[in-house]
């Protein structure tokens, strides 16, 4: 594990190793507030960025790993998840559910498991980039690995 990683990224890296994930967390030169800026920094298509979006689904956290090329249809996600209402979570809700800040939420490394939906569109990319627990960190993975390490359900998000 790298000594240079932020504390949250070290926790994510530990979780990735425990889950048998292959990718190494890297530190970006600058924050990537959008999928486009993340894609530019790692040199991939915007659709290969796995945005980690935490929603409040009837009071429970729901992580949607969506392609950077998509916008999540919250009504579709609510029906898919079998809940009445899905809404964007507050920063406090996100931190409580994941232990990580918005802009850096990783698919794993949370204090407790978070129900996860994985955008089918990500399967179109050989390599997918996901956040590493901090706004400056990402790691390469695959659609299949994301589904496996999160226990996620592949779905259409739009």
UniProtKB/TrEMBL annotation:
<dbReference type="InterPro" id="IPR007214">
    <property type="entry name" value="YbaK/aa-tRNA-synth-assoc-dom"/>
</dbReference>
<feature type="domain" description="YbaK/aminoacyl-tRNA synthetase-associated">
    <location>
        <begin position="30"/>
        <end position="148"/>
    </location>
</feature>
<protein>
    <submittedName>
        <fullName>YbaK/EbsC family protein</fullName>
    </submittedName>
</protein>
<dbReference type="Pfam" id="PF04073">
    <property type="entry name" value="tRNA_edit"/>
</dbReference>
């Amino acid at each position: 594990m790298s000594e240079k990683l932020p504390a949250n990224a070290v926790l994510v890296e530990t979780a990735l190793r425990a889950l048998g994930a292959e990718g190494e967390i890297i530190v970006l030169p600058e924050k990537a507030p959008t999928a486009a800026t993340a894609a530019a920094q790692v040199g991939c298509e915007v659709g290969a960025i796995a945005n980690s979006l935490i929603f409040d689904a009837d009071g429970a956290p729901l992580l949607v790993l969506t392609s950077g090329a998509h916008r999540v249809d919250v009504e579709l996600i609510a029906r898919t998840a079998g809940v009445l209402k899905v809404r964007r979570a507050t920063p406090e809700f996100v931190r409580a559910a994941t232990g990580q800040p918005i802009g850096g939420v990783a698919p794993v490394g949370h204090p407790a498991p978070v129900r996860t939906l994985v955008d089918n569109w990500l399967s179109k990319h050989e390599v997918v980039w996901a956040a590493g627990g901090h706004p400056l960190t990402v790691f390469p993975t695959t659609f299949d690995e994301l589904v496996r390490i999160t226990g996620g359900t592949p779905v259409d998000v739009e």
